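lol ok so funny story. i was supposed to be doing the assay writeup but got distracted and ended up predicting the structure for this chain instead. priorities right. anyway since i did it might as well share w the group, maybe its usefull for someone
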Amino acid sequence: MNVQFNSKISSFTQLKAWQESHKIVLMTYGLTKKFPKDELFGIISQMRRSAISISSNIAEGFSRNTKGEKQQFYGIAKGSLTELQNQFIVSRDLKYITTKEFDDIAKQTVLVSKLIYGLIYSSMNRS
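and the output, tada:
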């Protein structure tokens, strides 16, 4: 029996960038659960929206057909990631998260940043 595998990605959920950014969403929700309750409509809400925006824009960019549209959504994902990185610095400085927790999420954000750059580069070279 001759089995052929199609290596073409057919769903955004197969993108490594989406998978790793989804981890950021889960990590963000987990970490912000222990924030002070008076931050629910402040930094907690903002951080959760930023985190979700990363994976959502990767998903939307995947579904777009033109280079320009893909780059636009991947660029928005990168912007949301940078925003979230800043919010985690603030959270660390306010002692809402530990240095270890910060280091763990920071590593994840750096990984996702590299993967998003890969998506942007790939979309630029797409025929």
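Residues 14-124 form a domain with the de novo design (two linked rop proteins) fold (CATH 1.20.1440.60). The first helix runs from residue 16 to 32.
back to the writeup now i swear
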